[in-house]
């Protein structure tokens, strides 16, 4: 819930309301990715050795909450402190993404192998359901129909979303108990962990299938996340869409995302992971250029709704594939690189997007279309690597 509100309104608050260049907005994600690179694998490795996966997840979730709260208060009461708001957003997003290192690894522990696809799909679907609720609750605030405190406009949405994040996270933080054996005798040595990091990584990617999948994920996720992060700005600058209509479009896309997530989960368990991956990524290769080339807004609204189905499907399929490829004793370490492949891809995608919109500034709105179409190249590279991945399906494991 909280992420969709900040994704939709903070990007516009920073770029449109405060006049910050697209390039610098995208650099927030690039810097956050670099921070993850130096921290996520270490804590993931320690979690595997100590069994403290849930403890780390809870603490990092709370840190994310605190920094989202910081963004909210700065935007409402100190809106001239743009750098401070951007810094808090960087840290909030960093910890939010960090939490998925441990959250994604839960899948292996809470569901049997033959149900990973559908459980992953239901989880992704629940996420999108929360995002729809977030949009519906904050729409009157963004449109000015309801005023709370502080700066008017888009800044009104941040604090309610953060409060709801805290309320809805409480049951997970208080009552969810992961049945894992902790190792209290393990002595944490950060210096040794950093020293052995490279060897652990080489061991992880010595499996050719893991290496090919992480490469594939890096490239196709690069494009999809970059499109996602810049989509509100794209709607504003290319079609002049109002905040109300943006919310309606995103709400429709999120609704189909739930359908995409849940249905793809069952499809995975039916036809297999490899085939599911190829189908979903192949459709993305075609769909992104169609989005960029289309100039008819009515058709674009239909495409926005359809793209939601693909968003739900891609996260469900990729998370299930990573779970199947990662050894049980290295789940958190493995998912740290899954998260890094996701986030370090934002070192490249946003950089390309920002450079294209800057270099072709004299082209007007066409520069955004060029940036959009360019993203399809990265997805196509990901599709090439996925073709080289072999994944043991449940039938193979049983035999």
Automatic annotation (TrEMBL):
<dbReference type="InterPro" id="IPR036259">
    <property type="entry name" value="MFS_trans_sf"/>
</dbReference>
<feature type="transmembrane region" description="Helical">
    <location>
        <begin position="275"/>
        <end position="293"/>
    </location>
</feature>
<dbReference type="InterPro" id="IPR020846">
    <property type="entry name" value="MFS_dom"/>
</dbReference>
<protein>
    <recommendedName>
        <fullName>Major facilitator superfamily (MFS) profile domain-containing protein</fullName>
    </recommendedName>
</protein>
<feature type="transmembrane region" description="Helical">
    <location>
        <begin position="23"/>
        <end position="44"/>
    </location>
</feature>
<feature type="transmembrane region" description="Helical">
    <location>
        <begin position="84"/>
        <end position="107"/>
    </location>
</feature>
<feature type="transmembrane region" description="Helical">
    <location>
        <begin position="367"/>
        <end position="386"/>
    </location>
</feature>
<feature type="transmembrane region" description="Helical">
    <location>
        <begin position="247"/>
        <end position="268"/>
    </location>
</feature>
<dbReference type="InterPro" id="IPR024671">
    <property type="entry name" value="Atg22-like"/>
</dbReference>
<dbReference type="InterPro" id="IPR050495">
    <property type="entry name" value="ATG22/LtaA_families"/>
</dbReference>
<feature type="transmembrane region" description="Helical">
    <location>
        <begin position="128"/>
        <end position="149"/>
    </location>
</feature>
<feature type="transmembrane region" description="Helical">
    <location>
        <begin position="212"/>
        <end position="235"/>
    </location>
</feature>
<feature type="transmembrane region" description="Helical">
    <location>
        <begin position="56"/>
        <end position="78"/>
    </location>
</feature>
<feature type="transmembrane region" description="Helical">
    <location>
        <begin position="337"/>
        <end position="361"/>
    </location>
</feature>
<feature type="domain" description="Major facilitator superfamily (MFS) profile">
    <location>
        <begin position="1"/>
        <end position="394"/>
    </location>
</feature>
<dbReference type="GO" id="GO:0012505">
    <property type="term" value="C:endomembrane system"/>
</dbReference>
<feature type="transmembrane region" description="Helical">
    <location>
        <begin position="155"/>
        <end position="176"/>
    </location>
</feature>
<dbReference type="Pfam" id="PF11700">
    <property type="entry name" value="ATG22"/>
</dbReference>
<keyword id="KW-1133">Transmembrane helix</keyword>
<dbReference type="GO" id="GO:0022857">
    <property type="term" value="F:transmembrane transporter activity"/>
</dbReference>
<keyword id="KW-0813">Transport</keyword>
<feature type="transmembrane region" description="Helical">
    <location>
        <begin position="299"/>
        <end position="317"/>
    </location>
</feature>
<keyword id="KW-0812">Transmembrane</keyword>
<keyword id="KW-0472">Membrane</keyword>
């Amino acid at each position: 819930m909280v992420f969709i509100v900040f994704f939709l309104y903070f990007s516009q608050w920073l770029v449109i309301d405060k006049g910050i260049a697209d390039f610098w907005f995208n650099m927030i994600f690039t810097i956050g990715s670099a921070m993850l690179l130096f921290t996520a694998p270490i804590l993931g490795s320690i979690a595997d050795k100590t069994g403290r996966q849930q403890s780390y997840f809870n603490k990092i979730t709370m840190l994310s909450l605190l920094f989202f709260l910081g963004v909210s208060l700065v935007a409402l009461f100190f809106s001239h402190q743009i750098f401070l708001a951007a810094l808090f957003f960087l840290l909030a997003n960093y910890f939010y993404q960090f939490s998925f290192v441990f959250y994604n690894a839960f899948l292996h522990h809470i569901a049997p192998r033959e149900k990973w696809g559908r459980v992953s799909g239901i989880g992704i679907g629940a996420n999108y359901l929360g995002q729809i609720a977030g949009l519906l609750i904050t729409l009157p605030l963004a449109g000015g129909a309801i005023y709370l405190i502080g700066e008017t406009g888009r800044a009104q949405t941040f604090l309610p979303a953060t409060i709801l994040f805290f309320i809805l996270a409480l049951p997970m933080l208080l009552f969810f108990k992961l049945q894992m054996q902790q190792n209290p005798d393990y002595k944490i040595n950060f210096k040794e962990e950093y020293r052995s990091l490279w060897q652990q990584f080489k061991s992880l990617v010595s499996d050719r299938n893991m290496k090919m999948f992480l490469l594939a994920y890096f490239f196709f996720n690069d494009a999809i996340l970059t499109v996602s992060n810049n989509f509100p700005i794209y709607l504003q600058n290319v079609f002049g869409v109002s905040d109300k209509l943006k919310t309606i479009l995103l709400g429709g896309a999120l609704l189909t995302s739930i359908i995409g997530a849940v249905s793809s989960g069952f499809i995975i368990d039916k036809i297999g992971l490899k085939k599911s991956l190829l189908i979903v990524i192949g459709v993305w290769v075609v769909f992104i250029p169609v989005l960029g080339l289309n100039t008819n807004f009515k058709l674009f609204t239909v495409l926005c709704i359809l793209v939601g189905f693909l968003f739900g499907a891609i996260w469900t399929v990729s998370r299930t594939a990573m779970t199947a490829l990662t050894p049980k004793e290295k789940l958190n370490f493995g998912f740290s690189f899954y998260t890094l492949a996701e986030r370090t891809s934002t070192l490249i995608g946003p950089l390309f997007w920002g450079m294209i919109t800057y270099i072709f500034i004299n082209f007007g709105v066409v520069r955004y279309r060029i940036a959009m179409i360019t993203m399809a190249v990265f997805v196509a590279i990901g599709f090439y690597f996925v073709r080289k991945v072999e994944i043991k399906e449940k039938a193979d494991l049983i035999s």
